[in-house]
Each structure stands twice: as C-alpha cells, then as structure tokens.
Design a protein that fits this description.
The complex is a heterodimer of chains A (320) and B (317). Chain A is an all-alpha fold. Chain A has 14 helices and no strands. In chain B, strands 9-8-7-10-11 form a five-stranded mixed sheet. A four-stranded parallel sheet of chain B has the order 4-3-5-6, with helices on one face. A two-stranded antiparallel ribbon of chain B has the order 1-2. The chains are: A mainly alpha (320), B alpha/beta (317).
Chain lengths: 320, 317
C-alpha cells in the first residue's frame, strides 16, 4: 500500500512537470502574477490539464484492458492492439466515417466499440477451436486476425484515399486534446473502476472454464463482461486519441512479475503503471522536437519494444 | 527465408542487367536541338530521348495533366480514377486507364505502345520501371522555388509538343497575376499554413509543398523555422495560438478526399479562437484540389492564387 502511494506520488510529480511543457507560455511566474488577460491560467485550463487527464485516463484504462484480455485469453502475450480489438475498432471508425460522416463523436465511438467487440469475440471464438494452445500460438492468432482487419481497412481506405486519416487515427497522439475534446475518456475510467469490482471473477476466469464452473460461476458471463469492458475501452481510446502500442502488454506483465496474478491486487498497480508509461512517452514526444511533437504512440512503440524484449530475455523460465 | 532471399537476389540481378545504359549526352540542356531520332530531354531523373511529335502520350501525374490541358495538348491514356475539378474531362471513358498513380498496369501499358510516358510526384517512384517501356519524362516537384518549378515544368512540356508560344503567354500571365497578389499580401500580416487530416494538425513552412503561399504569394511567415518536410510538422492548437497568425490557411485533406471535412471541427476550439485570424474571420479553407491534389499544375496554381486574392479582397485591410 505504501509502495503504491509512493508510485502515485512519483507520477503526480511527473504530471506537474508535464503541465509546464508546451508551446504556450505557462510558468509558475505567469500563474502567480497573472497578466490582465490571465493567458497562462487559460492555457492551463483549456489545454494542459485536459491533455494530462487524457494521458492518465488512456494509460490506466488501456493497461487494465490489457490485463483483463490476458486473463480471458489465458495468455500473457496478448493486448487489445494485438488481438484485433484495435484493428477492428479502426475498421469501425472507417466505416462510420465513410457511410455516416456527420455522425457525432459519441456515435462513432459506439460504432468503433461494436466493431471492437465483434473483433475480440471472434478472436476468443477462434481460440476455443484451436486444440494446441501453446504460449506463442495465441498471440500469433491475434496478430493474424488483426492483420486481416487491418488489410480490409487498408483496402477501403486506399480506395477512398483515406490511408493517411486511418494512420492518424491509429497513432495515439495527444496533440489535439483540449477541453471539450477528451471527456469521453472518463467513461473508460468508469469501466476501469467497474473492472476493479469484478476483478476476482477475472482471476477465476483466468484459471479456465472448468475451474470457474466448479466454483459455481458462469464462465461465459464473466467472459462477456470482460469482452465488453475491453472493447468499450478500446473503442473509446481509438476514437478520442488513437492506439498506444505495448501498453497493455508491458505493464500487466511487469506487474505480474512482482505481484503474481491476483487481479484485485495487481489492478491498481497496472492502472498506475499504465498512466506513468503513457505520461512519460507523451512528455518525451513533446520535448524531443520542441516546439513540434512526436506522437506519444511512436515513443511508446520504440520504448515499449525495447523494454518488452529485455523483459522476455530475462524471464524465460516464467513464461506462461 | 533463405529461399526468398535467393529469389530476390536473382530477380534483382536480372533487373540490373536489363537496365539499358544511359544515353551518352548527359550534359545536355533541358531540351536539345531535335535530331532525327528525337529530342534529348533532361528531367528530374536523368535524360530521355523523346520522339519529335509524340502522339501516344500516357500521363501518370495530375500536375502534368493540368499543364497539358492548359497547353491544349491531347493525351492518349491516363492513370488513376479520380480526376478532380478542372481535370474532370480526363475521367471520360475515351481515355484508357493504365493502372493508378502508385501502381501502373504494366500489361495495359505494354500493349498501348506509348511514344512518351510522363511521371511526376506520386508516380516518380515508378520511373525506373516505366522508362523501360517507353521514353519517360519525370517532372520535378515544387520545392523552394515553387513558381519557378511550375514554370520550368510548363516550358519543358511545351517544348515536347511544340507549344512554346502558348506556354510563354500562360507563364507571363501567371507571373503578372501572382506579382499583383504579392503586392496586397505582404503588408497585410502574417500567415500560417496547416493541413488537417484525421483530426490531427500539421504545419507547413516556406519551401514545403504548400510553400507557394509564403514564397510566391508573399504572405509573411508567422512561424519561422518550420522545416520543408513532405508531411509537415505535427502541432497542437497551442502552437497556432502562440504563433498567432493574422491569416490561417487550412488544407482540409479529408475534404480533398471526398469526405465531409473535419477541419472546421478540429480548428473550432478555444485556443484557435484567440488568434487574430479567427477573430477577424481570416481563416481560409484552400481548395484541396488546387492546393494538395494538383498542387504544382499551372492552372491549379492560378486557381489557388485566385482564391487567395479573392479572400484578401473580401477582407478590409
């Protein structure tokens, strides 16, 4: 508990720093002695704090979504971005853009989430029919499925010259988060909290179907709940900022290395770790090419792949 | 894996052997005095010998189509299936399609027996393949000297088809009207060019693909130091707010692609509202056809100039 509080404190410090990084003039000085138009304060309220909140919300919810998905698939190497959840959400967003361009953001989000739900469910369905569920087959199936969705998206995007837009959606980027543009993410946070209450069930589901049934619980219902949470979170995140790779993979794995697989115990850590990871990536992306930006997802991709590889080589004995 | 590598190596070797040696006259000027064989033309990717009166011309570039249309040259076949704005006539079925700008249909092209192929911009990467089928001329993209490139491309194509006189008239008119625009823009405040796609904003400076706004139209630069990269620099609304341009030039890429553009939604926010450009209503949505799709065509540049001039005229100094 104390360690968790300490971790939160470190992230709060980083958050404080991040608020003062940006093109506009926001500094202690400007805040303490505001000019006649209170520009610094405005900038803080319109741009910096919403961006910070969006980063934290995405980090926590995607990390938790990754953890739940790993429980449901009973495999440590899956995450929303690699089992087709994100790719099918992107396809949904493309369909919504092409067929119903006037749809409000909430509508687009629902379409994306519905596609994401279908995609993730298909993944689990295929998984059930595979007799040999070796550690590596599961993520491979996910990657293949994701690529199928991706190629469908690419085909239609190519035909309608929307490839660049699709790329923009898929790359998690916080550069355009402003007051009024990210609030949907609070729903993702709500789902994360819901996941905390259902955490014990996911732990049990992670032991397998027969085990769950023996304990007198309905396996399919737990799976459906988990699926719903994962795909809604994915849809929300893809629509508002885009996908952040490696987050759902890296953070739950790191946490389980230290804390094991008790979801209720590890979930707060996953949430905090995810938030910290995304925050760090976003801050780096803003600093490296100041005053321009590198999307946070790009940084996450580079940092995440390095971290994950080192993680893999170090703990081969505990894989699975 | 090994097998694939070997196959690749063999294919690569074969391709290398097939490549015919370059014509010896490397140091020729843009278009040499015509000989019986044809005229030696220097272009963006080397030199080619083009027959004197090319009849079967296949065009892989919207910019070239724009210029040829302005010069009154008839083409034989085209690539792609979207011909926006004033290029709409090329959508007619009487022009055979030779694949797309990115993926030529080599079979169709072979059987079409072209005299001349023109590439540029999006199809430049296919130059090496296409030049094995017929003499190919690759038009350079507008860079630091945007207008000069447009003029050079127009003159190059005019020489190939003997339309030098027509080109002279077009170029003189264009230079005059742009000079006139420049007189009004230089004293009316700074400008920033942004492109919006998929909800993201990127900024472009002088020398970029939209550099014509600053370099030739004469709009003073609001954000110094923007590099000339093809896809611009990713920025947030804070950047626009901080640079506070008097004029905001917006290219709504998604609108250019036939989607109802989201640029208005993206830019309509509390930070952009604080800029002079927004307060004075000086946000202009450039026609994405002329600025983006056909950017560099002589008609497209003139239309872009027309739009900017009209917009400046509609706002009191």
């Amino acid at each position: 508990m104390i360690r968790l509080v300490a971790a939160v404190a470190v992230i709060a410090l980083l958050a404080l720093v991040s608020v003062f990084i940006g093109v506009g003039d926001v500094s202690w000085h400007a805040l303490v002695s505001p000019g006649p138009d209170e520009q610094a304060l405005q900038m803080l309220l319109i741009s910096r704090i919403p961006r910070l909140l969006a980063v934290l919300l995405v980090g926590t919810s995607l990390g938790v979504a990754g953890l739940i998905l790993q429980m449901l698939a009973r495999n440590r190497f899956v995450e929303p971005a690699t089992v087709g959840a994100a790719d099918s959400a992107g396809l949904g967003l493309l369909v919504a853009t092409m067929l119903m361009p006037q749809l409000p953001v909430l509508g687009k989000m629902l379409v994306a989430a519905a596609f994401s739900l279908a995609g993730t469910a298909l993944f689990l369905l295929i998984l059930r029919r595979i007799p040999l569920r070796s550690v590596l087959i599961v993520p491979l199936v996910g990657l293949v499925l994701g690529s199928v969705f991706d190629s469908v998206t690419t085909f239609f995007a190519y035909r309608s010259d929307l490839l660049q837009s699709v790329n923009a959606w898929k790359t998690g980027d916080f550069s355009n988060v402003l007051r009024g543009r990210y609030e949907l993410l609070w729903a993702a946070f709500g789902l994360t909290c819901g996941a905390y209450f259902a955490a014990d069930r996911f732990t049990v589901a992670g032991m397998g179907e027969s085990f769950t049934t023996n304990l007198g619980m309905r396996y399919s219902r737990i799976v459906a709940l988990g699926l719903l949470i994962v795909s809604l979170i994915t849809g929300l995140v893809v629509v508002t900022v885009g996908m952040v790779p490696f987050l759902g993979l890296l953070v739950p794995n790191l946490v389980s290395m230290f804390l094991g697989d008790n979801t209720r115990r590890s979930l707060p850590w996953v949430a905090v770790g995810g938030a910290g990871f995304v925050l760090l990536c976003d801050v780096l992306g803003r600093v490296v090419r100041f005053p321009y930006e590198i999307p946070g997802a790009t940084i996450a991709g580079v940092a995440g792949s390095v971290l994950f590889l080192s993680l893999l080589t170090r703990r081969e004995a505990r894989v699975g | 894996m090994w097998r694939a590598a070997v196959v690749l190596a063999v294919v690569g070797l074969g391709a290398a052997c097939q490549r015919s040696p370059e014509p010896a006259s490397g140091a020729a000027p843009a278009a040499e005095a015509p000989s019986e064989k044809g005229r030696t033309v220097k272009h963006a990717q080397g030199t080619s010998v083009v027959p004197l009166h090319p009849q079967r011309v296949v065009v892989f570039d919207l910019v070239a189509l724009d210029i040829l249309q302005a010069l009154g040259v008839e083409v034989f076949a085209v690539a792609g299936d979207q011909f926006p704005g004033h290029l709409a006539p090329f959508g007619d079925a009487k022009y055979p399609r030779m694949g797309t700008l990115f993926e030529p249909n080599y079979e169709a092209l072979h059987s079409a027996r072209p005299d001349l192929i023109i590439t540029g911009g999006r199809s430049s990467a296919k130059y090496a393949n296409l030049s094995r089928i017929a003499p190919t001329v690759d038009l350079p993209m507008g860079g630091v000297n945007y207008l000069d490139t447009v003029v050079a491309n127009t003159e190059l194509l005019a020489t190939l088809f003997g339309r030098e006189e027509k080109a002279r008239v077009l170029v003189t008119e264009l230079r005059a009207s742009i000079a006139k625009l420049k007189e009004t823009t230089t004293s009316r405040g700074t400008g920033l060019v942004v492109l919006v796609t998929g909800g993201r904003i990127s900024a472009y400076g002088p020398g970029s693909r939209f550099g014509v706004i600053h370099g030739d139209f004469g709009v003073p630069v609001a954000a110094a130091g923007l590099s000339a990269s093809l896809h611009g620099e990713v920025i947030g609304s804070e950047f626009i707010r901080e640079k506070n341009p008097d004029w905001l030039f917006v290219i709504d890429r998604d609108a250019g692609m036939g989607q109802s553009g989201g640029a208005r939604q993206v830019l309509d926010n509390e930070l952009v509202h604080q800029t002079t450009a927004w307060k004075k209503g000086q946000v202009v949505y450039l026609d994405p056809m002329n600025a983006y799709l056909i950017g560099g065509g002589i008609q497209a540049v003139d239309r872009l100039r027309g739009q900017v001039a009209e917009f400046y005229a509609s706002k009191a100094p």
